[in-house]
């Protein structure tokens, strides 16, 4: 697989491409939604490479296809056609069980609406991906170590004193900090961030992005961020622009 950026990426993005291995890529990726007799082409033959250890940002207007691309790369949705490669492996060849393991262990997710479970505390929400990924016997063995790891992550994102609070008792910024800790609990290689600052004021958005930068720098984890926020995307290491289901020049 080539380490050069896809031809569809903007020249600006190509100039900032790090000399690192490709960790995740898609080739000729299409996503078509059917509504009655109408076909909606959300992604149109997209080629894209994400490089190990980078923070890449994709910006574009609503309907550009950026969230759809993120969901496909993260195995939250299935492409109409094309291939997705993780560390060179074609993910389409995985069984549903194998794909679920990759999604749970290798990928982490942050969303604009947080998606925290309202009846669970911050600590329990952070632990949830590890609990879901473990069988009953494995969970009995690992629960305490996961609990300690979750508590350490909450401390790291500034919520050590709030770990016993349910989401309704947390501010929007605090909920997104919990979501970031949850995304990190299984020590994933790639974190997908879908409008992670979309519901936050500019000061809180800046704090969340600083945490992303710190985890990237300290742990070498790869981040793919899709956003409307030009201020956020300008701070990423590589900026790409989407319109009408394709990468375009800015």
User: What is the share of helical residues?
Assistant: 25-40%
| Coarse morphology | globular
Which structural category fits the helices and strands? alpha/beta
- Say what oligomer this is: single chain
* SSE string, helices as H and strands as E: HEEEHEEHEHHHEHEHEE
**Major beta sheet summary:** 6 strands, mixed
**What integer is the average pLDDT?**
90
Helix count, DSSP H or I runs of 4 or more residues: 8
Distance between the termini: 26 Å
What topology, given as strand order, has the largest sheet?
A: 6-7-8-3-9-10
Q: Tell me the total number of β-strands.
A: 10
Which percent band covers the strand fraction? Answer: 25-35%
> Any low-confidence stretches, pLDDT <50, length ≥5?
1-16
Q: Radius of gyration over alpha carbons? A: 18 Å
3D architecture notes:
The protein is α/β, with parallel strands linked by helices and 250 residues long. It is built from eight helices and ten strands. It has helices at residues 11-15, 66-73, 96-105, 122-133, 136-156, 172-184, 202-219, 230-233, and strands spanning 22-35, 38-51, 55-59, 81-86, 89-90, 107-111, 190-194, 222-227, 238-243, 246-248. The strands form two sheets. It has a six-stranded mixed β-sheet. β9 (238-243) and β10 form a beta hairpin.
């Amino acid at each position: 697989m080539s380490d050069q950026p896809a031809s569809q990426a903007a020249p600006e993005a190509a100039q900032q491409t790090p000399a690192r291995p490709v960790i995740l890529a898609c080739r000729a990726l299409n996503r078509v939604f059917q509504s009655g007799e109408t076909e909606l082409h959300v992604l149109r033959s997209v080629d894209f490479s994400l490089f190990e250890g980078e923070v890449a940002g994709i910006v574009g207007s609503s309907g550009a296809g950026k969230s759809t691309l993120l969901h496909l790369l993260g195995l939250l949705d299935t492409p109409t056609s094309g291939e997705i490669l993780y560390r060179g492996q074609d993910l389409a060849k995985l069984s549903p069980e194998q794909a679920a393991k990759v999604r749970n262990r290798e990928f982490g997710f942050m969303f604009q609406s947080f998606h925290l479970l309202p009846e669970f505390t911050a600590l329990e929400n952070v632990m949830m991906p590890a609990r879901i990924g473990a069988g009953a016997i494995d969970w009995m063995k690992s629960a305490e170590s996961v609990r300690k790891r979750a508590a350490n992550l909450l401390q790291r994102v500034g919520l050590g004193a709030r770990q016993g609070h349910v989401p309704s008792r947390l501010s929007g910024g605090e909920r997104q900090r919990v979501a970031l800790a949850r995304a990190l609990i299984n020590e994933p290689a790639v974190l997908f961030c879908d409008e992670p600052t979309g519901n936050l004021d500019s000061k809180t958005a800046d704090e969340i992005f600083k945490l992303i930068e710190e985890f990237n720098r300290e742990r070498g984890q790869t981040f793919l961020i899709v956003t409307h926020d030009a201020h956020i995307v300008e701070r990423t290491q590589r900026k790409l622009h989407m319109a009408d289901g394709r990468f375009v020049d800015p």
